[in-house]
Amino acid sequence: MAALGWLTPRRRSATARSVLAGEAAAEAARKSSQELEELEAARAAEPGSAGPAEPEFPVAGDTEAAAFFDLDNTVMQGAAIFHFGRGLYKRKFFERQELVRFAWQQAWFRLAGVEDPEHMEDARESALSIVKGHKVSELMTIGEEIYDEYMAERIWPGTRALAQAHLDAGQKVWLVTAAPVETATIIARRLGLTGALGTVAESHDGVYTGRLVGEPLHGPAKAEAVRALSAAEGLDLNRCAAYSDSHNDIPMLSLVGHPYAINPDAKLRKYARERDWRLRDYRTGRKAAKVGIPAAAGVGALAGGTAAALALHRRRR
Fold first, then answer.
1. Is 70 among the catalytic positions?
2. pTM (two decimals)
3. H-type helices in the chain, by residue range?
4. Catalytic: which of 70, 245, 249, 265?
5. What does the alpha-carbon distance between residue 53 and residue 243 come to, in Å, rounded to a whole number?
6. CB-based burial of residue 218 (10 Å sphere; 0-12 exposed, 13-18 middle, 19+ buried)?
7. In whole angstroms, what is the distance from residue 188 CA to residue 175 CA?
8. Mind listing the pLDDT tens digit for each residue in 80-89?
9. Catalytic annotation on 265?
10. Which among 72, 245, 249, 265 is annotated as catalytic?
11. For 202-232, what is each residue's pLDDT tens digit?
12. Rg (CA), the chain
C-alpha cells in the first residue's frame, strides 16, 4: 500500500517528481516480475509438473513489443484504492468517518466515470494516515484477501481478453496505475500478467514511513514509468500498445504506436476519434456509455453504493 505525501523538496519541478516516480515504479515492477518468473520456474521444475504449454501465436512473437494497461475503470470497475479502503475498514484499520469519505468517492467515481484529481489525492492522503507504521508484508497479505473479497468480480472480461491476446502472442503485459504498487502487483499476478507499475511508497526495515518516492503514478508520471521500463526491457514503443479509459493517460497513450481508448471518458473519446485511435467500450446501455457507470455493477449496485455513503453520513450527523 502506498503511503501518500511528498518525498522530494518543493523546489523540485513537477517534471522531476514525475521522472522520479516513474523510475521508481519501473524498478519495482521489474523486481516483482523477476521474482514471479523465478517462482514459476521453480513450480515447473517440481516432480510431476508438465511445465507450461507451448503458446500458439496468431502472429510471430515480437520480443520488442509489450502492452500497458491502466487499471481503474479500464481493467477493473471502479478505483482500486477505494476497494482497498473498504477492505481495511472491515479489518478495523480506521473509523467510520473515513469510510464515509471512501464510499462517497467511490459512488462519485462510478457516476462521473472520470478521475477527479482532488478525490484521488484525498484518497491517497487517507491511505497515508492509515498505513503509516504498518509492515509491508502485513499489507501484502491483507491485499490478497481484499482482492478476493472486492476486486476479482469487478474485472472487465473484455479488457482481460485483450490482455490475454498479448500474452498469447508472446508479449509482456504490465498494469500501469496510480494505485499502490503492492496492490497493483497482486492484481497483475492474479490475472496472470507480467507485472505492474504503481505508486511507490518509502519504507524502512519493511515498515511504511508515510512518504512517497517522487509522486503518485498519475498522468505524466505514468508516461515516465512506461518510458523507463521500456528502456530497461529493450522495447520499441512504436510496436507497443497501451490501454486506458481516462484523458489523464493521454501522455502514456501517446507514447506507443498502438493506443486504445477503453470505456473512455468524454475527453478521451473525442481525442481518440480525432486521431483515429481504436476504441472499445465494454459498458452496456446508453447511460453507461455516457457517464461511465460500470455495466456489470448495474443501477442497483450504483444506488447501493450511493445509499450506503448517504446512510453513513446521516448516522455520523
1. yes
2. 0.69
3. 14-44, 80-90, 96-112, 117-131, 136-146, 157-168, 181-190, 220-233, 250-253, 266-274, 286-291, 298-316
4. 70
5. 27
6. buried
7. 7
8. 988 888 888 8
9. no
10. 72
11. 889 999 888 888 788 889 999 999 999 999 9
12. 19
